[in-house]
UniProtKB/TrEMBL annotation, chains A, B:
Binding site for Mg(2+) 2: 46, 75
Binding site for ATP: 105, 122-123, 148, 228
Something else known: Reaction mechanism of ThiL seems to utilize a direct, inline transfer of the gamma-phosphate of ATP to TMP rather than a phosphorylated enzyme intermediate.
Name the record gives this protein: Thiamine-monophosphate kinase
Native source organism of the sequence: Nostoc minutum NIES-26
Residues engaged in binding Mg(2+) 5: 229
UniProt binding sites for Mg(2+) 1: 45-46, 123
Domain PurM-like C-terminal: 153-313
Family label: Belongs to the thiamine-monophosphate kinase family.
Amino acid sequence: MTQQVRDIGEQGLLERLQRFCPPEIIGDDAAVLVTAPEQSLVVTTDLLIDGVHFSHVTTSPEDAGWRAAAANLSDLAAMGAFPIGITVGLGLPGDVSVNWVERLYQGMTECLQKYNTLIVGGDVVRSPVTTLAITAFGQADPHRIIRRSAAVVGDAIVVTGVHGNSHAGLQLLLHPELRQNLNDAEYNTLIKAHQRPQPRLDVLPILWEIVETLHVTSLHPVAGMDSSDGLADAILQICRASGVGAVLEHRQIPFPKTFDSWLTEEQALEYALYGGEDFELVLCLPKELADVLVQHLGQGAAIVGTITVGSKVLLHDKHQKFPDRVLSLSQGFQHFSQ
Amino acid sequence: MTQQVRDIGEQGLLERLQRFCPPEIIGDDAAVLVTAPEQSLVVTTDLLIDGVHFSHVTTSPEDAGWRAAAANLSDLAAMGAFPIGITVGLGLPGDVSVNWVERLYQGMTECLQKYNTLIVGGDVVRSPVTTLAITAFGQADPHRIIRRSAAVVGDAIVVTGVHGNSHAGLQLLLHPELRQNLNDAEYNTLIKAHQRPQPRLDVLPILWEIVETLHVTSLHPVAGMDSSDGLADAILQICRASGVGAVLEHRQIPFPKTFDSWLTEEQALEYALYGGEDFELVLCLPKELADVLVQHLGQGAAIVGTITVGSKVLLHDKHQKFPDRVLSLSQGFQHFSQ
């Protein structure tokens, strides 16, 4: 019979999970971490509830763990911070299998290891619903913090990669019949985009090197956030926090090529703008920096628009196939005000 | 009608809760905090579930908030760390009243303000069960970290205050008829000990001043933890982590005076050793330091025993009313091996 959490208890489970944590850090009232001098501490937290944010049914425990860790590391990347460690609070019903929990931790640590970070502490408790509380810690040069509120009129808006893949992957998992439109490689790319999203911590050293080597006139702090809640949301949040507007050019938004075979142009745009969970970075910076950054990043990185005066975020189509549209936070794509 | 969480949504609730957070810190992907140079980062996390760790029924939301914050600050104190801030992840069913949530945050911030710290970030999500995930982070001089594993044979074991008050307060709340044994002041002291426990961050500057001014021979790092899971648990955990034993003297364990009127001697000992949630510190340090520390702390601080070779924790009664007993982690007081 499958061993359940209630069979080994909280203490027994903690002992099983210790192999995912560095032994020199755990085992006391709190974890002690060494931070680099002259760095600011950056902290972010997420609470994930079974049935709301992940599903025992459609998500493997490894993928749920990976995605939870990736989302928090992406929040750090969005601030310009490199991860130091995460804490994991886990609430579990007694009938969850021990194997499920170990696989969840396996997925988390796989993601963390890729970015040289660790689980440094946690808590395991009984709960009627499986609950995952992650707090991620990072450090950043205080002069290189990326804030939502720093966008300036004239900035180019850069996306670090294509958008819509993760949502497409989810749709393929929910509606297997859609697979017939794609070959295996295309299918696997979209599924992986959903199951194993990559926080874009790799962008930071590239960005800072460009900022340092290019002597840009009128350089201001880079503005940005991640696109975990969708590309439209990211741009709208940045504009709101910075007190500016934006014009996006429909034809510059990079779509996955594989969308052509099974989505209309309108659907593809909806996936890209509102799909969410692509965990790319959306950055606002002077055009001359943006050009070099996009060139260095490749792989779907693009300038998708420009920061403008005002507060509206306009979507423009230079082919004039679609009329100009105003994006809004509260309304999804289907409720566009025209 | 009482406004419920579902009436205003997650975004609406977040806006209501922003008044409990410093505006310059929240509103981005993560919080940015300045830490002191040369300090280590200390991190601790707790997950609290309605019906398991607190109750909508017997605990006011202010007290639940205070206790949750206090428990995490106590973990920092137990490491020798001063708090920088906490993050709060909150999972809520739609039918929780907005007022309940605001009162919970009120209780948390009351506790935090007393210790000059803040809520610096968080997450509010939908959940079938009210869930509170707190991560507290602090900073400590790396040479003054208090670890469970640092106890040395011959150390005096200091408690920073009386034990059993919190459990007594809980019993009085659960069994109102017990109140008849106490006057109002006595009753209120015990209730408050349960509802508003005080993390002993105040002990740290006193401890360090004594360590600095007294030139103790053979000084080693101070060992210790907090007594959140009971005094017996704290001593047993320290002994296990340090590879040592201990002898406790029954007559040196400080009991609340108010126990005499309604508890047997055996019950009083049980409350003190196993009651839990008193959030005092249990420290192991050279006798000459311990004497000065106890004198400075007053208010129930006492040397309750000595660290010995071996691994057993013995409870000795110099009046020989009780036989020597061995304390154990897995068994409560009622299951003493004799």
